[in-house]
Amino acid sequence: MAEQLLLFMPGLLLGALLAGLLGTLGVVLRVREEALAAFSLAQVAVLGGMLAALAGVPQLLGAWSSAVLLALLAVWWLKPLGLSGPSQHLWILLLAWGAGLLLADNHPQARLLSSSAIEGQLLLLSWERLPAYLLLALLSAALLALLLRRWLATQLLPWRHSTPSVLLAGLRELAVVGLLAVGALSMGIFVTLALVVIPAWLVWSRAASLGSALWLSALYALLMHLLAFSLALWLDQVYSALLVVLLGVSAVALALCWQISRRAAG
């Protein structure tokens, strides 16, 4: 048992870190009404990872750089053209999905990479690859923390804070893209999206403040990761599927319990 735990420890550690960070990111994106951005950028990261692997470049580098280029393109070029908000993210998502599907259909290795992007590779993560994933995730989280106050202030108090400069907007995209790229390549694209969307939805109207919403979302995502990881090893099941199901079912159950308790108290 100890040997098995040591073998899967890299995935357990990285997953725990990402679960908390992605849960927090979900609340931030919900405040900014940019949750759809997670879908498009994660899909672009997967496409970049596929292209990098085919070119003999590290997947993480390809995923991050491609998503960064597209995010900066959206900030500097697409918005001036009038393509912004949900329409921008939907446009990017559809193009990235179509390009990835064509690539997988015409290259055997890309087909395998496409499948692994859906199921994730967290249980297969080695100690050798762990430092690069941890470094990018921690740097992205630190950058996001530095920009968080200004980012949220422009949304919640627009009459007191001017629109951030293009440089600040670009740095913000670097941070968001870094977290989504690490999540999509290691945990899988659907697990990444579930961790961004579901915990934030659960705590959004139930937390006492924005700060408590950030912590509760991160804590809930972390607990669900630990439970899903343990069950995946114990029952020999797919981690990504278990986590998505656990997140969805438990979130609905907790929301119903909260609603029932409110009615009983009121």
TrEMBL record:
Cleaved signal peptide residues: none
Regions that span the bilayer: 6-29, 36-55, 61-78, 90-110, 130-153, 174-202, 214-235, 242-261
Keywords assigned: Membrane, Transmembrane, Transmembrane helix
Protein name: ABC-type Mn2+/Zn2+ transport system, permease component
Organism whose genome encodes this protein: Halopseudomonas yangmingensis
Taxonomic placement: Bacteria, Pseudomonadati, Pseudomonadota, Gammaproteobacteria, Pseudomonadales
